[in-house]
Amino acid sequence: PHAAPVPGIPGLTFPWMETTRRIAKDRLSAPHGPAVPAAALSPFAATRRIGHPYQNRTPPKRKKPRTSFSRMQICELEKRFHRQKYLASAERATLAKALKMTDAQVKTWFQNRRTKWRRQTAEEREAERQHANRLMLHLQQEAFQKTLSQPLPPDPLCMHNSSLYALQNLQPWAEDNKVTSVSGL
C-alpha cells in the first residue's frame, strides 16, 4: 500500500501517513480480516485510548450558588467589621448564631470584606500620594517663579569684586540675556 501525497505538494509523503492509514484501515476491517497486533502497527497504538479523553474522569463538583444575605445581616456584619477586622472563633460563632448564619458564612464574609477593605485603602493611599505629588510640584513651580521675579540681594563679598558681582547678577533664564561688559577688570 502506498500513502497518498500531501495535498498541494504532489509526490511528497511521510512514513507516518502510511502507518496512520494502515491503523485506521485495520480498525475498520478488524472483524472481517486477519488480526494485526497493535504493537506491530505503531509504537503508540498500544497506549492510545479510544473515545473522548475526559469521559473516564469523575464529573466535576457542582458549584454552590451564591449566598445572599439580608440587609439586616449585612448591616450587622458591616458594623462589626468597622469595629473589628478579625474575629476569634468564639466571637465568630456568637455572631453567626445571632445573625442566623453558619460559622463558615461569617468567616468567608469577613475574609472577603478584608480583601475589599485592603484594596480600597490602597486606592485611597495612591490617590493621596498623587494629590501630594501634584501639590508639591505646584509649590515648587511657584517658588521657582518667585526666585525668577525677585532680584537677588547683593552679597557683600561680591560688591567689592567686579567679577563676582557680574556672576551674581547673571541670569541665563531671563529674557534679556545679552552679554554686558564689566568695567574695572
Automatic annotation (TrEMBL):
Pfam families: Homeodomain. SMART domains: HOX. Transmembrane segments: none annotated. GO terms for cellular component: nucleus. GO terms for biological process: animal organ development. It is found in: Nucleus. Its main location: nucleus. It comes from the Eukaryota. Residues 62-121 bind DNA. Keywords: Developmental protein, DNA-binding, Homeobox, Nucleus. Seems to be involved in the development of cranial sensory innervation from peripheral ganglia. This is TLX3 protein.
